[in-house]
Amino acid sequence: MTAAARRTRVLLADDHALVRAGLRRILDAQPGLQVVGEVEDGAAALAALRREEVDVLVLDLTMPGKDGFAVLAEAKRLREGLKILVLTMHADPEYVARAVREGADGYLLKDSAVNDLVAGIESVREGRAYFTPRIQQELTEILRAKPAPPSPLELLTEREREVLTCIAEGLSTKEIAARFDISIRTVETHRANLMRKLDLHSVARLVQFAIREGLVKPP
Fold first, then answer.
1. Total domains, the chain
2. How many angstroms separate the CA atoms of 99 and 62, rounded?
3. Does residue 2 lie in a domain region?
4. What is the pLDDT of residues 23-61, one digit of tens each?
């Protein structure tokens, strides 16, 4: 098979099996596309990028453990030439702007996936940005708006975001330490730093913040 005829290799990253199955049905019907893997969280996405040859990563932003933003920050360092199409339910301008800043080549809402997924993949694969009309409107509003202060989430390190996500998921200090192979004291230090940086001085408030920022889904 010549380079020109080679199929575009796609990795799907979404924590909902039904969503992945629906996306796969759409892509399997396209002779020019090949799904090389499906993963349900950010850590698995990064592991798959190390293991598989991937041209386009279709990435949800809200996943357990490492979220989509953490994956965006690392993915292109792992796979040169990788294109990333964000596929999410979040249409907020802050989400769009942050995703683009951290490396997204396209931004597609899940309610547009049936009609626009293939076009989105083909566009980013060819080096063209792709945004559905609703997101294009969001970008226009961002450009017209006055510069916004940094999001509190941007004050956090990657590990602090990971610890915050685990706290919001209800993991104990001991469980968080085991997940990241760090000491209990280190987890406690991260929690203290989170409270200081975010000016949120209880676990309940940290959980509310994580839900509001889309790090975890509401219970």
1. 2
2. 12
3. no
4. 999 999 999 999 999 999 999 999 999 999 999 999 999
